[in-house]
From TrEMBL, chain A:
The keyword Electron transport applies. It holds the Pfam family ETF. Belongs to the ETF alpha-subunit/FixB family. This is Electron transfer flavoprotein subunit alpha/FixB family protein. Residues 4-183 form the Electron transfer flavoprotein alpha/beta-subunit N-terminal domain. InterPro entries: DHS-like_NAD/FAD-binding_dom, ETF_a/b_N, ETF_a/FixB, ETF_alpha_N, ETF_asu_C, ETF_asu_C_CS, Rossmann-like_a/b/a_fold. It comes from the Bacteria. Keywords: Electron transport, FAD, Flavoprotein, Transport.
Automatic annotation (TrEMBL), chain B:
Keywords: Electron transport, Transport. It comes from the Bacteria. It comes from Heliobacterium chlorum. The keyword Nucleotide-binding does not apply. This is Electron transfer flavoprotein subunit beta.
Length: 316, 252
């Protein structure tokens, strides 16, 4: 069986959900081993064993406290070259997509980016803003595959334990040239857009920044994130980090509620892979209704508060 | 400051995708400079306007990409290089090596690229070029400052922002938010016609990489079934929707 590696991603001393999703995919591909990098993360390694990983390589040192491209690339490229896995799965997150191509280039590997499905030996990934899909296979080993968060079902806990192998990391002066000056966390009670299970999004139809309060209220009832169309961002109503679409975030929540968004092709590019799409729009001809699983033709200022009240009744 | 910018020509964002004989059919499609690469061009021009120097744009592709290189020249780039890859089997690694070799000779202090091309959506070529040329990188940058031979870039991370400092020479990949790209002026368009546009053939670059991944097939998404659309009585619509989300879609 193929040796498949999952590069685990952890944050605040917790293994992120996408890591378990990658383990789930990896089990379809072969024997699963994992790699964990960081500072003070050793204790997390055993957790992966409970999900069917046979071995975890851990590089735990002070230098790996801050993520930088060069340090991660050094450790991962060295380790892959030494242990020779056939497929390496990396989360398609701000970190993963930063180091994966660099590692691939250093070890002379191919990379298949932003994979959303795996069928009959081929990886499926969206191209042309999700208007088409490529079926891709590696023609050399190892191959790096970056995996879109929120699309593969997470591996189930199956008990058991795993071997843990400590990996010594050593860095050259070049590896330490980049310095992380600052990490600014938005303090928010809401989940991050690309990780959210439910997203409530607003567009030009929201008419002004103050009206996003009604979306935030709905989001808080649902435990959702709040997104925006480019029109809302360009109007200065929301920060561009909340933009969904071709030039914004790509999201795949299980539920996407689009309010006052017309459904331009560039918006669909970012949310078309959502499992269930709900549209609220007063224009019955709006393009968003073509991709919506459910929709309400009506005034969002009337509908949204009613929906929030209904959700509240159901969920409290 | 010598700045290289890598630009890819892509389909217009509105383009309808047609698959013919297992390939995406480019006929009749309008083309543009990849939107993220326009941010890269703009940033290069702003840096040059501040500290002086030269901006050189590179694109790998057929004669058709000349049009996009001319646009970059009209925006204000000084000269352009087209890398002709005719007959070469490519993947991201091969394209990156070709571009890196073309750029490599120029002793650039800074290389700017887009973070992702909206056609193949690989998000690899810029970073691979950084690795080949042994440059520090800051990826998906939304704000960039240059001082004392160092670059400070902000990049979005999940739930926040990271500020990274790297020494020059370096490679930066541009994300939306970095700037608003300018339109070419009439004067710029006239001047662009006289600027140097060199063609380099892949065969002269001694490319050693082979494709490591293979696209086996292209397919279009299945047309979605018509959804359930509620109208008229809003109170009924709302309760029907919530019921459907819970009992049918099972998402809440
Ligand atoms: C290169 C490029 C990249 C782009 N990238 C993105 C991107 O990443 N993300 C993105 O979103 N867009 C992107 N766009 C822009 C895109 O083309 C659209 O312009 C944009 O998505 C429109 O936003 P909108 O739907 O909010 O606004 P509109 O298209 O103006 O739609 C507003 C909608 O609100 C409805 N409405 C108004 N009032 C109400 C009400 N009271 N109740 C209910 N409904 C109401 C209207 O019927 C209408 O359908 C890009 C464009 C280009 C050219
Ligand atoms: N053929 C090309 N010519 C010039 N630059 C390219 C080419 N392909 C990719 N790039 C650069 O690499 C970035 C990422 O592309 P990709 O890896 O294809 O998503 C783009 O935004 C461009 O800046």
């Amino acid at each position: 069986m193929a040796k498949v590696w999952v590069i685990l991603e952890a944050q605040d001393q917790k293994i992120k959900k996408v890591s378990y999703e990658m383990i789930g995919l990896a089990k379809q591909l072969g024997d699963v081993e994992a790699v964990l990098l960081g500072s003070g993360v050793s204790s997390l390694a055993q957790e992966a064993g409970e999900y069917g990983v046979s071995k975890v390589f851990v590089a735990d040192c002070a230098e790996l406290k801050d993520y930088t491209t060069a340090k991660y690339t050094r450790v991962l490229a060295d380790l892959i070259q030494k242990k020779k896995p056939e497929i390496v799965l990396v989360a398609n997150t701000s970190q993963g997509r930063d180091f994966a191509p660099r590692v691939a280039q250093r070890i002379g590997a191919g990379q298949i980016s932003d994979v959303m499905d795996y069928q009959e030996g081929q990886f499926i990934r969206p191209v042309y803003s999700g208007k088409a899909f490529f079926k891709v296979s590696p023609c050399a080993c190892p191959a790096i595959v970056t995996v879109r968060p929120n699309v593969f079902p997470a591996a189930e806990k199956c008990g058991g334990s795993c071997l843990v192998e400590e990996v010594a990391a050593s860095f050259s002066a070049d590896d330490l040239k980049a310095i992380v000056k600052e990490v600014v966390k938005q303090v928010s009670s809401r989940p991050e857009l690309t990780e959210a299970n439910i997203i409530v999004s607003g567009g030009r139809g929201m008419k002004g920044p103050e009206n996003f309060a009604i979306l935030e209220e709905m989001a808080d009832v649902l435990g959702a994130a709040v997104g925006a169309s480019r029109a809302a961002v360009d109007s200065g109503w929301r920060h561009h980090s909340f933009q969904v679409g071709q030039t914004g975030k790509t999201v795949s929540p299980s539920l996407y509620i689009a309010c006052g968004i017309s459904g331009a092709i560039q918006h669909l590019a970012g949310m078309g892979s959502s499992k269930v799409i709900v549209a609220i729009n007063k224009d019955p001809e709006a393009n968003i209704f073509k991709v919506a699983d459910y929709g309400i033709v009506g005034d969002l200022f009337e509908v949204v508060p009613m929906l929030t009240a209904e959700f509240k009744k159901l969920l409290s | 400051m010598k700045i290289a910018v890598l630009i890819k020509q892509t389909f217009d964002t509105e383009a309808k995708i047609v698959v013919k004989e297992g390939k995406v059919d480019p006929s009749g499609v309008n083309v543009i400079i990849n939107p993220y690469d326009e941010f890269a061009i703009e940033e290069a021009l702003r840096i040059k306007e501040k500290v002086g120097g030269e901006v050189v744009v590179f694109s790998a592709g057929s004669d058709k990409v000349t049009e996009s290189l001319r646009k970059a020249l009209a925006m204000g780039a000084d000269r352009a290089v087209r890398v002709e890859l005719d007959g070469v089997a490519v993947d991201e690694g091969v394209v990156a090596e070709a571009l890196a070799k073309a750029v490599g000779e120029g002793n650039f202090d800074l290389v700017l690229t887009g973070w992702l091309a909206i056609d193949d959506r690989s998000a690899q070529v810029g970073v691979r070029v950084a690795e080949i040329l042994n440059l520090s990188q800051i990826n998906m940058v939304t704000q960039l400052e240059l001082a004392d031979g160092k670059l400070t870039g902000s990049r979005e991370i999940e739930g926040g922002m990271e500020v990274v400092e790297v020494p020059l020479p370096a490679l930066i990949t541009a994300q939306r938010g970095l700037n608003e790209p300018r339109y070419p002026s009439m004067k710029g368009i006239m001047q662009a016609k006289k600027k140097e546009l060199k063609v380099v053939n892949a065969s002269d670059l001694n490319i050693s990489a082979q494709p490591k991944v293979e696209v086996k097939d292209v397919f279009l998404p299945k047309a979605k079934e018509a959804g359930k659309i509620y109208k008229d009585d809003m109170a009924d619509a709302v309760s029907a929707l919530v019921k459907a989300l819970r009992e049918e879609a099972k998402v809440i």
